[in-house]
Amino acid sequence: MKVGDLCFFYHSNCCPPAIVGIMRVASEALPDMTALDIHDEHYDPKSTLENPIWITRTMEFVEKFKTPISLTTLKNDPELSHMVVAQKGSRLSVTPVSEEHAEKIFCSISPLKLSK
Are strands 6-11 and 30-31 parallel, antiparallel or unpaired? Predict the structure, then answer.
């Protein structure tokens, strides 16, 4: 991901899991400070500021979809069913999206257009 890239905001831990909007990458990769905080539930003793195990990025809100795109919808759409997030066994919410899949979603749901 690069600063300025548009991303789909995907809620994975809800019923039903769905793409609910669009966000933009607003920062370069940063160390996840929760992994360095001994009092945080996400503390990881292997992580250091010099060699972080976990990274994060700042994201900014762009748009909320009026109608979320459920995981079931993605899986049942012949043009979207090959998205990584729709594949059997995919457990990650942060997955790559091909330009073809992104354009279909942007054109059908959002008035925004992908910048080339």
Answer: unpaired
Q: Does 76 map to a domain?
A: yes
In this prediction the pTM is: 0.79
The CATH number linked to 104 is 3.10.590.10
pLDDT of amino acid 116: 42
| 60 inside domain | yes
Distance, in Å, from the CA atom of 66 to the CA atom of 20, rounded to the nearest integer, reads: 8
Q: Is residue 93 part of a domain?
A: yes
Beta strands in the chain (DSSP E): 6-11, 18-25, 30-31, 55-56, 59-70
Domain-embedded: residue 114: no
Residue with tokens 């080339």: 116
- The half-sphere exposure of 108 on its side-chain side, counting CA atoms within 13 A, is 13
Which stretches in the chain have pLDDT values below 50?
115-116
